[in-house]
Amino acid sequence: MTGANKQRVDVAIVGGGMAGASLALMLAHFCPHLSVALLEQRALPDADASVRLPSFDTRATAIAAGSLQLFSELGLWNQLRDYCAPIERIQVSDRGRPCGMSMRAAQQPRASFAGMLGAVVENAALGPVLHRALAQTQTQVLAPARVNRVRMVADGAQLDWSAGAGCPDTQLQAGLLVVADGADSPLCRGLGIVTERIEYRQRALVTTLGVQRDHRGTAYERFTDAGPMALLPLPRRDGSHRMALVWTCSEEDAAILRELPEHEFIARLQKRFGWRAGRIERAGRVSDYPLSLSLAREQWRRNLVLLGNCAHFLHPVAGQGFNLTLRDCYGLARALAGADLAQNSTVGLELLEAYGRDRRLDQQLTIGFSDRIPPLFASPGLFARGLRQAGLLALALTPPLRAGFVGQAAGFGL
Ligand SMILES: Cc1cc2nc3c(=O)[nH]c(=O)nc-3n(C[C@H](O)[C@H](O)[C@H](O)COP(=O)(O)OP(=O)(O)OC[C@H]3O[C@@H](n4cnc5c(N)ncnc54)[C@H](O)[C@@H]3O)c2cc1C
């Protein structure tokens, strides 16, 4: 554990998952004048992935081109690229209907990064990359350090944290408290922040597949009446072609599917997804995530900001959650770049209001997109069917519309 030798920092970040670690890296880059402490309740992920935080589990994350651009700005792309499979083509289809849409990086230069529409990285690889980079910065990383209580005080926030059960509490004061402790945040509840939640009554089944043929950098998004499915390209391992599966289905179907032996799971998957990605030969252990839309009613208060899943938890359709969070982190880091937190001064409400205003439109568009697309594609009704066929057709036939859609999904829209 890294010891706490400071009693007061400019910024304290609670949670060392994707959101907290990304913000810490951006603050180190854009705000080197600020002292920052990051507190994570678990030991940090290590290189052999035997230690994992919730963010860095067996999932894979589609990182949009705009986010790759950000990682490049942070000087992280070189460390990340070895673990990434480029997305060179995205194919969207609607099961049982003829219309589909295909996009290639070469046709979307304004929504691409280094010839890619995005890249896919396994979360277990992303964690060590972020935390190794963090270890090269001045950030004070406290782990394991569980924050047991936070109190907002006149000059910022006061945190009580401990290194584990039975360890005494240590106090830390901060000018700005960033809560990035994941969905269902007890800290937010303790601060009286209400979260609105819509349960989709769906689950995402996630696993790694071995496929017979090379995916050639194609990401597939397939809409079915039971929910969207995504097959994402992964880097080869031991010469084998691999893809990451996110299969959205009802809670009842998920309970059956996740218990099936591998060959039956593959047979059901192949039937539902079809053959566009070739023969599926293997499936790894299936993990299962409940899906909901959760939105905190307040994302900032005086000396306080919420980031990541505790601020907004989205449907994973089109892989937007982390990409949106990265843009939030960037917006906050840029806003704080000009802030003077010296001599115990705190972050003015005006600065945080400006940050909130700047992030509003992107959040509304991204959250609206991820909330409305799955029901539209799941509905068997004639109107919905017509609408999605028209939508896919319009996207397929209208380059400017497609460029706008891809640009927003790629994180370049705003
Ligand atoms: C199935 C699925 C697929 C997804 N795919 C994509 C994708 O392809 N692209 C994309 O952009 N997004 C994707 N997402 C979204 C992405 O996973 C989330 O945006 C991301 O996990 C958010 O991480 P977080 O850091 O906010 O929360 P968490 O991962 O929950 O991290 C919170 C951290 O805080 C720590 N913590 C909690 N309480 C305390 C405390 N009291 N003291 C100290 N530390 C504490 C925890 O240990 C944890 O490490 C997907 C999500 C799901 C469910």
TrEMBL record:
<comment type="similarity">
    <text>Belongs to the UbiH/COQ6 family.</text>
</comment>
<dbReference type="InterPro" id="IPR036188">
    <property type="entry name" value="FAD/NAD-bd_sf"/>
</dbReference>
<dbReference type="GO" id="GO:0071949">
    <property type="term" value="F:FAD binding"/>
</dbReference>
<dbReference type="InterPro" id="IPR010971">
    <property type="entry name" value="UbiH/COQ6"/>
</dbReference>
<dbReference type="InterPro" id="IPR051205">
    <property type="entry name" value="UbiH/COQ6_monooxygenase"/>
</dbReference>
<feature type="domain" description="FAD-binding">
    <location>
        <begin position="8"/>
        <end position="361"/>
    </location>
</feature>
<dbReference type="GO" id="GO:0008681">
    <property type="term" value="F:2-octaprenyl-6-methoxyphenol hydroxylase activity"/>
</dbReference>
<protein>
    <submittedName>
        <fullName>2-octaprenyl-3-methyl-6-methoxy-1,4-benzoquinol hydroxylase</fullName>
    </submittedName>
</protein>
<dbReference type="InterPro" id="IPR002938">
    <property type="entry name" value="FAD-bd"/>
</dbReference>
<keyword id="KW-0560">Oxidoreductase</keyword>
<keyword id="KW-0812">Transmembrane</keyword>
<keyword id="KW-0285">Flavoprotein</keyword>
<keyword id="KW-0274">FAD</keyword>
<keyword id="KW-0472">Membrane</keyword>
<keyword id="KW-0503">Monooxygenase</keyword>
<comment type="pathway">
    <text>Cofactor biosynthesis; ubiquinone biosynthesis.</text>
</comment>
<keyword id="KW-1133">Transmembrane helix</keyword>
<dbReference type="Pfam" id="PF01494">
    <property type="entry name" value="FAD_binding_3"/>
</dbReference>
<dbReference type="GO" id="GO:0006744">
    <property type="term" value="P:ubiquinone biosynthetic process"/>
</dbReference>
<feature type="transmembrane region" description="Helical">
    <location>
        <begin position="12"/>
        <end position="30"/>
    </location>
</feature>
